[in-house]
Amino acid sequence: MRIIPLAKNSRIYSCHSYLILGDWNRVEDVNTLIDPGTDGFVLEEIERLSTGFGKVAVEQIILTHNHFDHAAGVLAIKERYNAKVLAFIDGPGVDELLPDGRFVKAGNDFLEVIHTPSHSSDSICLYAPAAKVLFSGDTQLKANESCESYTKEYVAGLVKLAGRNIERIYSGHDAPLTSGCREIILQTLNNLRKFGYSQP
Question: Residue 51: pLDDT above 60?
Fold first, then answer.
């Protein structure tokens, strides 16, 4: 799996977008774009990349949630590449729903869908077991304030994440984390327990 962080349009509010390719750009690898952002700004960069001879540059788009800064650019990418759009809930351009626990091929690896509702009810994280990578979208992985309100479903999602061997985290807005990833999640669960949130 190759992960290519794409540049953002500095003139508008948007998220980090990630293009996933196979290690060797083989025909069977599935070129996947996670969160296209607010507009079609990433198109120009994608066009300059080597995404595989005879392959469509973006075969599928996966949304970590349906907020505009992550999903508003879907239609521009879909129109250009005829890409299939996958998300936890229906929305503009969405072709297929992703339930919790589903595995989806991306590049030459698979991504596990983990429902983590907090930032939004449809928030998901995507975990690549072979690469030990988590795409967290806007899911809150650090909880230090007792005044926040957290659902049982969110805590359950964190428990699932804590059980994964995560070595890198690519989030929707922050710089990538390359160390202490699982420890951060475990500390969050410990904090929630102190705040009175029981783990499932």
Answer: yes
The full set of domain ranges for the chain reads 2-194
Q: Are 178 and 147 in contact (CB under 8 A)?
A: no
2, 15, 37, 63, 122 from 12: Cα distances, Å: 27, 10, 10, 19, 24
Give the CATH class of 2-194.
alpha beta
CA 112 to CA 99: how far, in whole Å?
10
103-106 β-sheet, strand order: 103-106, 109-115, 124-128, 133-137, 168-171
Q: pTM of the predicted model, to two decimals?
A: 0.93
Rounded mean pLDDT of 30-58? 94
The 3-class secondary structure across the chain, one letter per residue, is CEEEEECCCCCCCCCCEEEEECCCCCCCCECEEECCCCCCCHHHHHHHCCCCCCCCCCCEEECCCCCHHHHCCHHHHHHHHCCEEEECCCCCCCCEECCCCCEEEEECEEEEEEECCCCCCCCEEEEECCCCEEEEECCCCCCCCCCCCCCHHHHHHHHHHHCCCCCEEEECCCCCECCCHHHHHHHHHHHHHHCCCCCC
